TrEMBL record:
Protein's UniProt name: 3-oxoacyl-ACP reductase FabG
Source taxon at top rank: Bacteria
EC assignment: 1.1.1.100
Source organism of this protein record: Streptodolium elevatio
UniProt KW keywords: Oxidoreductase
Boundaries of every Ketoreductase domain copy: 3-171
Amino acid sequence: MSRSVLVTGGNRGIGLAVARRLGAGGDRVAVTYRSGPPPEGLFGVRCDVQDAAAVDDAFDKVEAAQGPVEVLVTSAGITNDTLLIRMSEDDFTSVVDTNLTGTYRVVRRAARHLMRAKAGRVVVISSTAAMSGVVGQVNYAASKAGLIGMARSLARELAPRGVTVNVVAPGLTDTDMAAALTQGQRDKIVGQIPLGRMATADEVAVTVAFLASAEAAYITGVVIPVDGGMAMGH
């Protein structure tokens, strides 16, 4: 059956790849975006997840267009990299508020229907930075680690209502975020990856699509790294 899907941050990178894959599978897919035009062929809703009122408004528009959200993928996120001694309080809190608190806002809004329906899927996009740490990403790694604790707590809360909550933790992925790194930075990270290359956004999307599928009905509270082996052992 075609499901109502919402992908936050679905206008580029991993979020867009997830949205297109789920749409190709027959789902009705909406995406949120903060700036620029909405992606072609998808129902887009402008939304800044730092704004609780904007989150409510986005859900209202999605529900009016395609029904209550049955599958939620939280991919909206930002980086603001610098060493701790140079990191301002705003550098830290803006990343945490977008990546971690923004996810709380979105999942809380979606949970109303999911719990009443006693069915649904939530897939949270974290990062291997949450497990291994990255120099210059104290704010980003903290936010992404927080998502794992949040998701596992939600998995326990929502499991009695038939809702699964899982985490996908990509490593270095060929997106705009990776393109912002210097070639030397990319080469250094790739040198630490056993498979010796970056992931593609679609490789991450395949994993998300599985966790959102009927076949994954008995999987909840897990963290799946999609990172070429970089985080093995964590």
